[in-house]
Amino acid sequence: MDDAVNHPPVNGIPALGLGTWQNTDFGACVASVRNALDVGFRHIDTAQYYENEAAVGEGISTSPVSRESVFLASKLWFDDLAYDDVVQTARESLDQLGVDSLDMLYVHWPAESYDPAETLAAFTDLKRDGLIDHIGVSNFTPELLREAQECCDAPIKANQVEMHPLLQQEELRAYCDRHDITLVAYSPLMRGEVGEVREVCDVAEKHETTPEQVTLAWLLEKNVVPIPKATSRDHILSNWESQFVELDDEDIAHIGGISQERRLGDPVFAPW
Ligand code: NAP
């Protein structure tokens, strides 16, 4: 990794990543990845389910930023979590992305074909064979994390979950802190609706910035890794500059005191 990231990496993971869910237009996705790398992002998040790995790979390979400088993460969908399917589909991800290895491969959801012992054995073998550097999980509760840790010979590096001012994930964060698992925050901008949260707007007004920057700065302050999805260069640049917003204790307490809760992603197969 080079030193383009201004906020220090969290447990070796660049502290701010680019999300790419729903960025399915090939050209737009390539451009957003290139723009993100150009402004300084060094962490890109994709998934087989997003059907954009080829575009993400194209964005990385056509950027002046070297592949080795980028932390690249993908995820395997829940119907591909039997041993042989993990090995085969992980190789398909590498082909689509045009890379030799991934920095992190996540179990996207603990559902359907997920079997902790079998699935994580396959992930461990991918790591042993150098196809992935780290094993990640996503949408895991503390109970599921505990079970995964018991089954897996290699460390679980990160848990990617929904987190934003209306879903503060205190219990999960405490568990992850105790077990050296990095929390990666998806939908950190509440899918573009964080500007509707009054407390966040109060803080944004005080610092003469935007609710989106405040939210990302608040997550970074908690040593959580936000991965905002953005398509336009303006949004990408603004998100990157959130690391220069300095929140004080009063701001943190104001957002921390929000009592309303709202979960945006709640599919039938969710474990909660
Ligand atoms: P998000 O990042 O919270 O919000 C994305 C929306 O916010 C887009 O409409 C984007 O618009 C807008 N936006 C971005 N920057 C902005 C800014 N500075 N000002 C105003 N609006 C802005 O939502 P998300 O896509 O759900 O989550 C982020 C990433 O997390 C995903 O892309 C994906 O990589 C990951 N994720 C993972 C899971 C999982 O199960 N593991 C689930 C959901 C998401 P434009 O695109 O027009 O710029």
What are the SSEs and their pairings?
Layout: E1 18-19, H1 26-39, E2 43-45, H2 53-61, E3 71-76, H3 83-97, E4 102-107, H4 116-128, E5 132-138, H5 142-151, E6 156-162, H6 170-178, E7 182-186, H7 198-207, H8 211-221, E8 225-226, H9 233-240, H10 249-256
Parallel strand pairs: 1-2, 2-3, 3-4, 4-5, 5-6, 6-7, 7-8
Commentary on this structure:
The chain has 272 residues and is an alpha/beta fold. It has a single domain (18-256), classed as TIM Barrel (Alpha-Beta Barrel). The protein is 39% helix and 14% strand. It is built from ten helices and eight strands. The chain has helices spanning 26-39, 53-61, 83-97, 116-128, 142-151, 170-178, 198-207, 211-221, 233-240, 249-256, and strands at residues 18-19, 43-45, 71-76, 102-107, 132-138, 156-162, 182-186, 225-226. The protein has an eight-stranded parallel β-sheet. Helix 2 (53-61) packs across helix 3. The protein is globular, with a radius of gyration of 18 Å. It starts with 17 loop residues before the first strand and ends in a 16-residue tail after the last helix. The model is unreliable at 1-5 (pLDDT under 50).
